[in-house]
Amino acid sequence: MSEFTQQLSLDTPAPEVAVMEPAEKAQEAFRFAMEQFGRNPDWITFFREVLGVGGIVRRMFPNPQELAVFEQGPMFAEIQQMLARLREKSKHPEDCDEPTRVITVRLPKSLHELLRHEAHERKTSMNQLCISKLLQLIDEKLVPTD
Known about the structure:
- Helix content is about 60%, strand content about 0%.
- It contains 9 helices and no strands.
- Helix 3 runs parallel beside helix 7, helix 4 (about 45-50) runs antiparallel to helix 7 and helix 8 (about 110-120) packs across helix 9 (about 125-135).
């Protein structure tokens, strides 16, 4: 871990982040993700440390516009691939120290049937399929506002 990354607070980005160029931020986030991936963590730990609310990506890109640009780039795509590879190895590690939460989602019967069908075709659970879908980027224009 670089000295710079070690100094980043989990709650607020360091003042140095504000003056860094987006490409430098991307490089630092990617380097950190590669380092974490090399430690072979469970996927939940990797997600939390890299992509979670307090993770390196959110700390490096507190500006929503810069974050959106980073999420469209090749480094973010590779981070997503790392996450997918870790998920392949451990569906839900029993030794993970992070508790799980349950949400209830209201959806039309036809969408539920489609998810069930897709999960069956992919030989996975609906839970695993939904987590996979939740981890994917979505175009902001496709999310209705209240």
